[in-house]
Amino acid sequence: MSIVKTAQGVGASLPRLEDDRLLRGRGRFIADIKLPGMLDVAFVRSPVAHARVRSVAKPGQMAGSVFVSADLVGVSGIRADSGLPGFKSSVEPILAWDKVRFVGEPLAACVAGSRAEAEDIADLVMLELDELPAISEMTRACDADAPLVHEGWSENVFLETFVETNFAVAEKADLKVSRVLRTARQHMAPMEGRGVVAYWDAHVEQLVVYSSTQMPHIVRNGLAECLGCPQGMIRVVAPDVGGGFGYKGILLREEVCLAYLAMHLKRPMRWIEDRREQLTGNANCREHHYEITGYANRDGTLVAVDCEAIVDSGAYSLYPFSACLEAAQIASILPGPYSFAGYRCHTRSIASNKPPILPYRGVARTGVCFAMEVLMDLLAREIGMDPVAFRMKNLAQPEEMPFTNITNKFFDSGDYPESLRRCVAAIDLEGVRARQLAGEPDGRRIGVGFSVYCEQGAHGTSVYSGWGIPMVPGFEQANARLTPDGGLELRVGVQSHGQSLETTLAQVACEVLGIDPHKVKVVHGDTAITPYSTGTWGSRCMVMAGGAVAAACDVLAERVRAIAAHLLQADPADIVLGDGKATCGAGEISFQDVAKVWYRRPQDLPAHVDPAGLEVTQGYKPLRDSGTFSYASHAAVVAVDPATGGIEILDYAIVEDGGVLVNPMVVDGQIYGGAAQGIGTALYEEMLYNKEGQPLAATLADYHLPGAVEMPNIKLEHMETPSPLSRFGQKGLGEGGAIGPPAAIANAINDALASFGIEMLELPITPARVRASLANVKAQA
Amino acid sequence: MKPAPFAYHIASTADAAAAALARAEGRAKPMAGGQSLGPMLNLRLARPELLVDLSNTPDLQGAQVEDDAIVYGACVTHAQIEDCVVPDPTPGWLSAAARHIAYRAVRNRGTIGGSLAHADPAADWVNIMMALGSSVLVAGPGGARAIAASQFMTGSYTTALAPDEIIAGLRILRRTPDARWGYWKFCRKAGDFAQASASVLVDAQRGDICILIGAIETTPAFLSDPEEILAGRRSIRDAVAQALPGRGDEGLGLHVAAVTRALAIARGERD
Questions:
Q1: How many contacts (CB atoms, under 8 Å) link A and B?
Q2: Which end of chain A is least crowded, N or C, by CB within 10 Å?
């Protein structure tokens, strides 16, 4: 079969098709949806981190506008268990009734004609709470006198995991380095918060839930389970979504609550999360604590790694990813792209009186990369070896590909040392070292640091079935329909909220079918009109939905070819598709004419035409679904001011291998955006809690996000080693940018401050922490 | 995050605003650009019964040129100062400082009078107006009065204003290019509140010399014996320690760095 290559298919930096709508303000986000008679909902949220609820009293004159747990008749709480042995189960009540377990937990829903009025009513709801001691520090959660977040549990641990492989080799290593490292609790801060609009459509007897979500089909599963109603009675629609990053990969209590209220009050209901709710009630990712030891020989061989990791998983296990994904993932991904002989890792997912955690862009990889790559630098220093050379020696080598590492991760392809070599060149390591020796006229200290990581993407059934969580991805499906005018509609169950899928999936169709991407309409985010999908997460869309679109277009191409051959009186094998038409020698027929015959002049169809016509739903899964492995090397040059602790990123380089890039411009955007978030993790973002479990940053004046000024001009280079597993050799890469920066920046800062004898091992590395470390060293001197 | 209910009054003159505040007997708040009060209303941390909007009050706008000074209306925005839409009584110092206040969106709405009335210890104008010896012009039912900027802020978020008084304007003395000036602040990121700030003014013509540290959780403080510091005969650290009693070495470091850098700027040794 033949296709004419076009300049708009796989590999083209096609401008984004969704930009015209989004940049001209014509997108429709959740808060843009206005329905006649719509009511606004404000939640009464717990002001304390841990308490027994004695009563939630409705204000007399407004009692009809306030709903508490007992009013949600027949509604079940949200349960997200893992099948891993020893997992302790928790149930998130839709509205808390017996206990509250973190500040911000919803206790009552107040309904009014506007949000301001709903908040006025919320002000009048009286809470009687018997406050209990709270767990706000994960390292104290298993103390003998620690209060229990969930009564009936033996200790505040959702899950413990332990892996050990050949660890005895560690004994024979020449040297070891041990450190305690820590990452801060963050919140993902999408520009648009969460939000829900729900109404009862009496005409079709269906509950319609608009939600700012990454996974409408999974939300429908969860809603049906909690509400106890058939799935056919529920339609979930994700409109334009202003950023997800994992924050919207969840079934929300607010979704369940609004769905119930809409069904029973028969009025459209709206809840739009405000920034305070987002910051205080939902700061929910990335809080890791590592006690890590690396073993190495003096010749630069990394021998073994030993790690005790704990993650503060917060108060509940969230649907669908559960409370244990993050910590348990640490054990399996810590070794990363390095080849070594002995490994031991013990992880615990701690329950605390904080918001439950969600997997944030990069999931556990950002913390793991920080722990492992800082350790690599410290080991290199202990050996007396250059950190780059130490990495080169221990990275998986290109001739070992496909490489299976010590935790049985299957690295499908790539040349890791080459990405590091190119990164060293891009950052001009020699030049930086020379500048370092010369010293800075303003007294600042210069440092350079590297990090290398891999990003497993689009991992499927074989990986997720092991977790035993409520959601296991299987075959991904796409529906492709040639419309009567020769255009193409693609229907996919994944959801695009910044991934540019309206463009890149059209490019895939262009590649396979030879149709102009501008004639392709990608329909997504609606359970009523798209195939089932677990949604957009885990860097999976380009591999899975891209593969499914290609598979559907393959079949559609055959059917177009059959009809065209009949009309051109040619052999289907001689038909070439491209440029929106079917060609055979001098004869040609446009897709529009082919479609016209199928839809409007069936009398002209061949006798034995495929009755399924010009509409195809096809499923796809790579033959091996352990995931594609994209990877990158990051390098940072920083200047640290010892007088203020101020840190400036002077230069930053990334050499990334994302396999075959479907749209290089879109990939660049993904990497820049991810890197900005990684810089936030490294230097700015931190949600502190006091010992009573009160969040200490209620606005963005206190929770520091990096802005445009804080972003360096990143030097970005690509390698394109095709994945042998995916349709076009593409790899999942949406998360990678966020993984590398904390490690590279921390290593650069530690390089800059090495002469002071200081190591910064806690994220974010703030000026105050640098000043404190310097003062500490001075005090000891 | 929506405000509690309040009544809303648009003041047509400064005196009318003060009269409206007086009638409300302490249950009203004046609002200029709303860049601090707006979020506090939304968070329901401020719950005035009446909001008196000053942002369209003509006699609080613009600048008046006097022989020795320029008087800014209280509702002159940071952006107007940044863009030199109003004349700068200094050789560009105010415009340069305004450029680094928060973000442009805040500067478009936020006002110099509002900033002083809010009296956030980390605010730029609080520090700079004190260092430049400006006067705060106040309107109220008791009549107009002028308060020295150094006497105006009485502590963190508190001022010498009576509940029925508003700031009408600021009289800022003219400075010539012969005068030396340095202002430096430390922020975690662009647009953030300062964690330390320092002003240095050496105006031989007027005989003004001062070093002022800000973002110290209360009213900015003048360092004693600034001449000695400038001459290098008194240690900056000692002077800062004297101004901030009870703070350990770590708590002083950032303020010492701020003074050191403001001095270097005043001496033309750094930007």
A1: 62
A2: C
CB-nearest partner of B190 from A641, A643, A709: A709
Q: Per the structure block, which two tokens stand in for A165?
A: 């492989």
Beta strands in A351-437 (DSSP E): 403-404, 410-411
Chain centroid to CA A366: 11
| Mean pLDDT, rounded, for A199-224 | 97
Write the pLDDT tens digit of every residue in A473-487: 999 999 999 999 999
Give the distance from CA A583 to its chain's centroid: 43
Minimal CA separation from A100 to chain B, in Å: 22
pLDDT band for position B226 (cuts 50, 70, 90): very high
User: What is the structure's pLDDT at A6?
Assistant: 62
Question: Is the bond leading into A764 cis (omega within 30 degrees of zero)?
Answer: yes
Buried b (16+ CB within 10 A) or exposed e, A98-117: ebbbbbbbbbbbbbbeebbb
**Residue in A closest to B264 by C-alpha:** A442
pLDDT in tens, B234-256: 999 999 999 999 888 778 999 99
Tokens 């009755």 belong to residue: A611
Q: How far is A591 from chain B (nearest CA, A)?
A: 51
- For A396, other C-beta atoms within 10 Å of its C-beta total 23
Q: What is the pLDDT of residue A1?
A: 42
Q: How far is A644 from chain B (nearest CA, A)?
A: 5
Pairwise CB contact (< 8 Å): A775 & B39: no
ipTM of the predicted structure? Answer: 0.95
A18-45 pLDDT, tens per residue?
Answer: 999 999 999 999 999 999 999 999 999 9
Distance CA B108, CA B78 (A): 7
Give SS3 for A372. helix
Contact A116 B5 (CB under 8 A): yes
Cβ-based contacts of B253 with chain A (< 8 Å): 643-644, 771, 775
Q: How many residues does chain A have?
A: 781
H helical segments located in A76-215: 115-124
Query: Using CB atoms and an 8 Å cut-off, which of residues 195-254 of chain B contact chain A?
Result: 195, 249-250, 253-254
- pLDDT at residue A4 greater than cutoff 70: no
Q: A 76-135 residues with CB below 8 A of B?
A: 114-116, 119-120, 123
pLDDT over 80 (residue B171): yes
DSSP state for residue A536 in the 8-state scheme? S
Does residue A216 come out as left (phi exceeding 0), alpha (psi in the -120 to 50 range) or beta? alpha
The residues in A 755-774 lying below 8 A from B, measured between CB atoms, are: 766-767, 771-772
How far apart, in whole angstroms, are the C-alpha atoms of residue A481 and residue A490?
A: 7
Interacting residues of B110 by C-beta distance below 8 A, sequence separation 6+? B32, B33, B35, B36, B77, B78, B101, B102
Angle B44-B50-B55 from CA coordinates, rounded to 5°: 95
| A496-518 residue pLDDT tens | 999 999 999 999 999 999 999 99
The pLDDT of residue A715: 98
- Tell me the angle at which helices A664-679 and A741-752 cross, rounded to the nearest 10 degrees: 50
- Single-letter code of the amino acid located at A340: F
pTM of the model: 0.97
Nearest CA-CA distance, residue B115 and chain A, Å:
16
pLDDT tens string A423-474: 999 999 999 999 999 999 999 999 999 999 999 999 999 999 988 899 999 9
Interface probe with B: pick from A40, A43, A644, A699, most Cβ of B within 10 Å: A644
**Does residue A644 belong to the interface with chain B, where contact is any CB pair within 8 Å?**
yes
Within 8 A of A123 by CB-CB distance, chain B residues are 4, 44
What pLDDT sits at residue A468?
86
Name the residue facing B249 among A644, A709, A775 (closest C-beta): A775
Q: Which amino acid is at A205?
A: E
Q: Looking at the complex, does the CB of residue A707 fall below 8 Å from at least one CB of chain B?
A: yes
